[in-house]
Amino acid sequence: MIKESEALNEFRTIRKNLPEYLKKINKPVMGYFETYVPEEIIYAAGMHPLRISPNNRQIAVGGSKIESFACSVSINFLDQLLNGTLAFLKGVIFSRYCDSLRAIADIWQENTDDSFYHFIPYPTISTKESINFLSDELKKLADHISNYFNIKINDAMLTEAIRISNKKRLTVLKFYDLIKNGKIAINSADFFSVISLATIMDSGEYTQKLEQLMKQMELTGDRPIENSIKVAISGIMLESTQFFEIVDKTGMRMVTDDLMFGSRAFKGLVIKTKEGPYHAISKRYLSKIPCSVKGNIDLRIDELIKDCKEADVKGVIFYLVTFCDSEECEFPILRKRLQAEGIPVIGLEGGYRVNSEGQFLTRLEAFAEQIGEEL
């Protein structure tokens, strides 16, 4: 039986009413699009770092500015810029991520003359040289923010921002561990809502609410967890609440993930180095579990297999955003490795929002029946 929580209801409300929440932020808001942009530098500048997420609106004008084979998530980001949805931002920071987002960055720069814009030329591998290179680039980012907004960012401010972000990461990872170990029962849609807000809400506020949620929801030994089929969900930018609700309808329940804004965003802390805070931040972001556009795929798959075994999942649901070439290349390798470990996998493909609920529901029900036979 899943225990209700006041904190969980607050997370649900914020997720359902994101525009209203964002209006209440009393700091300048700096946008970014993926979890390789260091939030610590934005916090150190006294600003609010906001990971822009796809909204649920039909794309109207974004598709006219870029090729139709760009991923729908990136086109949605562009649409939000062009239709004024993101007019409240003081600026945006892009990094060298995927081809679609790099194209969006160029178009964004051409269409915004009165707001801050910065592009980080990100390395794709972690070496001593690449860490030093990124450290220098992050200093350039901080200098650009300082000069543009006429503010000062010093090492003390950066160190405090690192402390705040590290505390959030540790709290999120504790939440994951409690779910994997059966101490907290939460359905997939609520799990998604809570985790997705970690890179949207103020870090201090988020950490406090998540700590409250864990205290309210942690189950004692004599409280049975609702009978459901435990699964992991893998992908990059899967941000449709409806999709996770479909998973719940099948009797499956996400207990861990391999999502860009999910567990991969929080594993690994910024550890102090003698070279200073920029070097420490650089080392952490280049060493974290990589997305398919970065690094060695084996690191990602090894971590997913480890999480699946710890959580005793019965299967993995992989969601591919159409035209995401890097994920399409990695999926066959990921599937082969997981199946070799005895972990069933289903691959689904779609856009930034669910347009075919019936089709997804049918396929996921069949998958649930397949992996649930052992229960």
What is the CATH level 1 assignment of the largest domain? Alpha Beta
Question: How many strands appear in the DSSP assignment?
Answer: 8
Low-confidence stretches: none
Question: What is the domain tally?
Answer: 2
**Which CATH-level-2 architecture of the largest domain?**
3-Layer(aba) Sandwich
SSE string, helix = H, strand = E? HHEHEHEHEHHHHEHEHHEHEH
Mean pLDDT: 89
Cα distance, first to last residue?
Answer: 18 Å
Characterize the biggest β-sheet: 4 strands, parallel
Q: Rounded to an integer, what's the Rg over CA atoms?
A: 20 Å
Strand order across the largest sheet:
2-1-3-4
Tell me the number of helical segments per DSSP (H or I, 4 or more residues long): 14
How are the SSEs placed, and which strands pair?
Layout: H1 6-16, H2 18-23, E1 29-32, H3 39-44, E2 48-51, H4 72-82, E3 91-95, H5 99-111, E4 116-120, H6 128-149, H7 155-180, H8 188-196, H9 203-217, E5 229-234, H10 241-249, E6 252-258, H11 277-287, H12 297-311, E7 315-321, H13 325-340, E8 345-350, H14 357-372
Parallel strand pairs: 1-2, 1-3, 3-4, 5-6, 5-7, 7-8
Helix pairs in contact: 1-8, 1-9, 4-5, 6-11, 7-9, 8-10, 10-14
From the structure above, extract its key features.
375 residues, alpha/beta, Rossmann fold, 2 domains, 4-stranded parallel β-sheet, globular
